[in-house]
Write a sequence for this structure.
């Protein structure tokens, strides 16, 4: 897993601005940072952020679901997972795929789930990630964090940024 925080031109049309997406990426990035730095303080911070949005019991459930999802993602990936460490609202390629995967899981859109998972992991052994994505998706949805549908953008396997004009709705 690598952090991708670059000064290169960003694709400013690709944002995670809606409340559910902002919470999703605050959690996702804190969990990825915790794994990268091998520092549990990031995960403690993730829990504190959740407490700003939901009651303690819901925060515990979501915290556990993000843990399961990011751990499974990191264990199953055949390539480094790229993510941004900053609060940047622009998404890199892998973050776009993660959002597309979990949003598709919320909608029970299996075709989109499979495509996003395969592109993200770089392998065909996607079942554990699909199960973790579906579990996270349900936990978020149950607590009224519904991710907007994500349009398909043809993304080259080695591209770190999304093409100009790509939008997340």
């Amino acid at each position: 897993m690598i952090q991708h925080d670059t000064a290169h031109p960003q694709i400013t049309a690709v944002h995670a601005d809606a409340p559910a997406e902002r919470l999703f990426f605050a959690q996702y990035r804190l969990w990825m940072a915790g794994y990268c730095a091998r520092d549990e303080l990031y995960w403690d911070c993730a829990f504190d952020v959740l407490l700003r949005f939901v009651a303690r019991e819901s925060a515990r459930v979501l915290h556990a679901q993000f843990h399961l999802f990011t751990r499974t993602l990191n264990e199953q990936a055949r390539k480094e997972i790229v993510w941004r460490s900053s609060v940047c609202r622009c998404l890199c390629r892998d973050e776009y795929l993660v959002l597309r995967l979990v949003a598709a899981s919320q909608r029970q859109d299996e075709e989109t789930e499979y495509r996003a998972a395969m592109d993200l992991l770089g392998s065909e052994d996607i079942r554990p990630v699909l199960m973790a994505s579906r579990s996270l998706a349900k936990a978020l949805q149950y607590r009224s964090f519904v991710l907007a549908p994500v349009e398909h953008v043809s993304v080259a396997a080695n591209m770190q940024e999304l093409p100009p004009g790509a939008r997340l709705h």
Remarks:
- Residues 56-76 form the longest helix (21 residues).
- The chain is about 55% helix and 0% strand.
- The CA atoms of residues 1 and 74 lie 7 Å apart.
- The mean pLDDT is 83.
